[in-house]
Amino acid sequence: MGTISLEGLEFFAYHGYYPEEQRIGNKYALDIIITTDFFKAAQEDKLSETVNYETIYQIVSKVMQEPAKLLEHIGFTVIEKIREHYPVVANIQVRVSKFNPPVGGVCTRAMITMEG
Question: pTM for the whole thing?
């Protein structure tokens, strides 16, 4: 077993609980950690035997294009879509951050972490 990670994926998207967030948009960042058995890929040097991080990026990018109210929903959907494409992975951890969230004061990022 090992992990494949994509860190600091950045997107401008139209998520948020408040209508103005969905209208104006904001910057988001995601970190993805996938635990899987990639022994065969390492041994045989074959991309087809592991999780392709380019495919993971494409999955995440597509999810980020669909407006959502909650960071939790984004995290859940990313996990669900990765599992649809790679059902044999052992675990997926997703961290979703929203920059400058509307909290009424200074806050660099709001963040959730989800596993599934």
Answer: 0.94
36 token code pair: 């899987």
DSSP code, position 100:
S
**pLDDT per residue of the chain (116 residues) written in tens, 0 to 9:** 999 999 999 999 999 999 999 999 999 999 999 999 999 999 999 999 999 999 999 999 999 999 999 999 999 999 999 999 999 999 999 999 999 999 999 999 999 999 99
In the chain, which residue ranges form alpha helices assigned H by DSSP?
19-24, 39-44, 53-64, 71-85
Q: Is 98 a catalytic residue?
A: yes
Which residue among the candidates 40, 62, 81, 98 is catalytic per the annotation?
98
On the 0-12 / 13-18 / 19+ scale of CB atoms within 10 A, 57 is middle
b/e per residue, 16-54, with b = 16+ CB within 10 A? beeeebbeeebebbbbbbbbbebeebeeeeeeeebbeee
Q: Minimal CA–CA distance to 68: which of 60, 5, 54?
A: 60
